[in-house]
Amino acid sequence: MTQKNFSAAINEALHQAMEIDPAVICYGLGVTDPKAVFGTTANLEQRFGSDRVFDMPTSENAMTGVAIGAALNGIKSVMTHQRIDFFLLAMDQLVNGAAKWHYMFGGQNSIPITIRLIIGRGWGQGPTHSQNLQAWFAHIPGLKVVMPTTPEDAKGLLLASIFDPNPVVFLEHRWLHNTVGEVPDGDFRIPLGQARKVRAGDDITVVSMSYMTVEALHAADYLATRGVSCEIIDLRTIKPLDWKSVFDSIQKTGRLLALDSGFTTGSVAGEIVARVAMEKFSQLKSPPARLAMPDVPEPTSPALTRGFYVRAADIATKALEMLGKDTNTVKADLPEPVPHDVPGEWFKGPF
Amino acid sequence: MSSDLTLKLFRNMYRIRAVEEEIARRYPEGKMRCPVHLSIGQEAVPAAFAESVRATDFAVSTHRGHAHYLAKGGDLEAMIAEIYGKATGCAKGKGGSMHLIDLSVNFMGTSAIVGNSIPIGVGLALSAQLKGTDQISCVFLGDGAIEEGVFYESVNFAAVRKLPVLFICENNLYSVYSPLSVRHPKGRSIARMVEAMGVQIAEGDGNDALVIHQIMQDAVDEVRAGGGPYFLEFFTYRWREHCGPNFDNDIGYRTQEEFQGWQNREPISRMERALHKTAPAVMDEMRAEVNAEVQAAFKCAEAASFPAQSDAYQGVYA
Q1: CATH code 3.40.50.970 for B2-73+111-268
Q2: Which of A219, B186, B216, B300 has the fewest CB atoms within 10 Å, counting from its CB?
Q3: Residue-level pLDDT at A351
Q4: In the annotation, is A60 catalytic?
Q5: pLDDT at B2
Q6: Are B126 and A69 in contact (CB under 8 A)?
């Protein structure tokens, strides 16, 4: 175990994957530049050479196809984009190609590629640098969708993704890159499709992913002071989703609050509410609820993003409502941090 | 030697034609329940391709991919069975006519989406370069794919990394029913436009298998020798409708005169004329052999079992 931040954990996973298997290659815009994609790809080229680690033309769609083609001959590509939004240019190759190849050709080969996509938020990221599209990707049969929260999960899930025989969309929230935690050394893998119980509790189940888990933890700390015991399930893998962990928790608490960092309509949280309502209705003590981003593009000005995000106060308020408790003081008890548009005061931009 | 080659080219073309004609003949029976895009009239390029590359070279193709699959050495019975939706099909009934694959000859797949397989072919070339083999990757595409952004992205990357890719464009003048005149500015050459991207090019009569073979063999040798990507453009013509078994000159998107002009340059009868004096008996033998093979493949496909319905839910993940 070593203390390191999320970016360093990603970097360590990449180093280890490339060391374990010479078929692993790593490319993307900026992976070899001095910034090294927020440090996540640092020293890879120096160590493994420019055949296996390289910068690329600004061609998201073709370069996704290149990963598919190389995969057909045994190469495991890890492709990185500094923002998820640029990757929208590659939907043909991802959806029509990578996701379906194994099925569509009768299971004769597979596409073991990993696509790292970084999600922005705040500091004026604006409408096209801040989208959380996990529900989109989860909608497509054949894709796996991973969203780590902690440095430990970032490393373990990235190694598992790289060595998974299927295409994996690996979503990194920019607000997590500087979080610090214990990270196991060596070849440490966390199986895909397993949620993590971040906190055990009895009164309400909060299902969350990625950065929303951080807000959920703040909310749970506060709720504890109000006598509410909150169980937090961090999904870690969005698809395939660990329904057993969700259902087991509901059985204990009888209440569901599903969080989502994406837009409300068609969200993963909506899917969780739907399945819990359909399959565990008789166990519910109150109607299931969800909190997600409004169906509005994220605006740029800090004046417009004040109060825009789902924060700990919103989560605590909803949980107290579901338990029939007073919510009057929550906003005052859990004020939105100032400044509100950065992960911490240390963050000075630009992206 | 050269007459050997001529005979091989004739046989390759005749075989593709015989398969496609049989699909067209039987299609109205309603047993082949998937779209089919036939290569009738366009046999010369794949026939020459078959004599230019090795089984270990990679190839990918398009929705109009029967001819390329067969030219690469793809299993005929498995292709026909796939079109019939049978369990013995090359994609076990999951893919149909537009998703052909035969890994035993490195025919890596075809795509129903225009331009979709181009970067996949480039990725295969990257893998060959990374592994240090002398394989080349061949990418079949049509003139419609030239209009897709991914084409330029793919050619550019192949040029940047000097990848062993052979792009083979069959320009049949139409994207479905849309003529080149509404899609490209008048007088601009596709090949020369691609040349400006830093790729070697050649172009030629796409209905003359001997000429195509010469051009293609030179290009294959150059790519294999490490010369980087090569783009070939061959002018040819689709006889039947974009999708399906019928002739469609009556619907008004092209003229009878244009069609007739291309029929006069029909690739197989050209070759037959050249071989008529020297090898009539050999040609007859070849025709009989191919006809028997094609009939057997259809018989086999018709007799094969359908996959179990439960197979629909299998194989989403590897």
Answers
A1: yes
A2: B186
A3: 83
A4: yes
A5: 53
A6: yes
* Type of residue numbered B35: P
pLDDT digits (tens, 9 = 90+) for A109-154: 999 999 999 999 999 999 999 999 999 999 999 999 999 999 999 9
Residue A129 catalytic? yes
Which residue of B112, B122, B149 is in closest CB contact with A66? B122
Mean pLDDT (whole number) for A62-72: 98
Whether residue A112 contacts residue A163, with contact meaning beta carbons closer than 8 Å, is answered with yes
Neighbours of A255 (CB within 10 A): 24
Domains of chain A: 2-183 (3.40.50.970), 196-333 (3.40.50.920)
Nearest-Cα residue of chain B relative to residue A50? B130
What is the band of B1 on the pLDDT scale with cuts at 50, 70, 90? very low
Please state, in angstroms and as integers, the Cα–Cα distance from residue A10 to each residue in A16, A111, A150, A169, A295, following that order.
10, 21, 11, 14, 31
Min Cα separation A61/chain B (Å): 6
ipTM: 0.97
Q: Where are the alpha helices (DSSP H) in B132-238?
A: 149-160, 190-195, 209-224
A70: helix, coil or strand? helix
